[in-house]
Amino acid sequence: MASLPMENYTCPLSQMSRNRIFTKIAVDKLTSGPRITWEMPLESRQRILRHLKQSGQASVAELSTALALTPVTIRHHLETLRIEGLVAEPVPRHKPGPGRPEMLYRITPAANAFMPRNYGELCRCLIQAVETTQNREVEGILVEMGRELGASAGTVGELAAASTYLQERGYFPSVDESEGLIVLEFANCPYLEVVEDAPSLCQFDRALLESLLGREVKMLGTIANRDPVCTFQIGN
């Protein structure tokens, strides 16, 4: 079958389909990703991981020179990282002449979770590109995705469980119940770099809350609008 010349090729996807795909890619990147519960106790271990990532492999002596840390300190950190599954078992590098071989260290795939990421810029560009076409359509897609994510959490109507769920995702939530009103605040926006240029993403959070709580949620203020916190009023 003859191939179709590129200048005559038309993408079979409708504009709405492309918008839905691009928006879903952006939101999935922002909301998926590893939930890292192990905290790196020392910056030195992060530096070791990054150096090993960049160099591919290194010995204790090479790490000591590159990071200005003593060999004893390097060995201690490497052993901890090995126990945590972030550094693989060392392999020997044989050198000419007498003496023991030098041991080389590499990171494991699990260490990639601690490497620099730039999802914020990528997602901001994707959402901005879609927003230039149909902003109302984008908000609808974000609402739909927020509801889908909330439905998968299994916390409908459980405020405490929903708060735990949101805390794990970096929202830093707090609840104030007074005079028959429930107000939920987010001290942190985990999508800050994106939402500053694409404030429609706030609709994702509102829909997520409605799905988690099974109640109507009214958005009163957002960090995207320069408010100190995101504020939501939870309906009865």
What does this structure look like?
- The structure is a single chain.
- Helix 1 packs antiparallel against helix 5 (119-131), helix 3 (60-67) crosses helix 4 and helix 6 runs parallel beside helix 9.
- The protein is built from nine helices and seven strands; from the N terminus they run H-H-E-H-H-E-E-H-H-H-E-E-H-H-E-E.
- With 236 residues, the protein is of the alpha+beta class.
- The N and C termini lie far apart (62 Å).
- The strands form two sheets. Strands 4-5-7-6 form a four-stranded antiparallel beta sheet, covered by helices on one side. A three-stranded antiparallel beta sheet has the order 1-3-2.
- The chain folds into two domains: 43-114, Winged helix-like DNA-binding domain superfamily/Winged helix DNA-binding domain (Arc Repressor Mutant, subunit A, Orthogonal Bundle), CATH 1.10.10.10; 119-234, Muramoyl-pentapeptide Carboxypeptidase, domain 2 (2-Layer Sandwich).
- It is 46% helix and 13% strand.
- The amount of helix comes to 40-55%
Largest sheet: 4 strands, antiparallel
How many helix segments?
9
> What is the radius of gyration computed over CA atoms, rounded to a whole number of angstroms?
24 Å
β-strand amount: 5-15%
**The CATH homology group name of the largest domain:** Trafficking protein particle complex subunit 3
Stretches where pLDDT falls below 50 for ≥5 residues? 1-16, 34-41
The tally of structural domains comes to 2
What form results from the Cα inertia axes? elongated
Mean pLDDT: 80
SS content category:
alpha+beta
Order of helices and strands: HHEHHEEHHHEEHHEE
